[in-house]
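Annex B, item 7. Sequence and structure tokens for protein A, then protein B.
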Amino acid sequence: MIRNNSENDIELFFYGEENATSEIAKGDFIIKSAFCDERGDKSFFEFFLIDSIQIAVHKRVVKTYYPDSPGKNIFNTQDQNSWRIEKNKKTFRRFVFEITEEDLK
């Protein structure tokens, strides 16, 4: 799940094998599914292979994430500073990436 905790509505642009756009109103979220392999240590976005993600506010790109971007990174699903566990069940975990005002600077 990707949650918009910023003060603005945002747009996410997913670039890769297929391009996609998602709008997230402030305080709202979108769900992107990911799966782990049989060892539980690799995950990927279900719908397409992504090589970069841009965040835009008022049609202006303010942040671009790449798989190797340092710091808080939407691609770094194993980092608890980037993604946190919101729900943890025996066979299901919901991870949340929160986009804040700080991320948009």
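Protein B:
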Amino acid sequence: MDDPRANMQDNRLVALGAPHADWTKTPGRTLGFWLTLAGFALAIVLPFWGVIAVLVGLAFSMRAIRVMPAGVPGRGLVLASLGIAAATLLLSVARGILGV
């Protein structure tokens, strides 16, 4: 084959590598975090409505975490949202049991 495009030694495109995806633009990542954070603040005053807001935020965060591979930038916000959701659920259950 005498095609100069087939010469891989001088081909600079191989050195560029694969394009990197921007995981910080994953749908549901920031919206899920803010809804979860707002639900946590709401759960302090109104536990039932706070849990509802947290579950909606959790749905957005779970949608984002299913798409994002482990170790990519931006995944920490989703994991923080999951932690806040767990804390909100514990707070609401504790308030329900203790009657505070």
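Comment on protein B: The chain has a mean pLDDT of 83.
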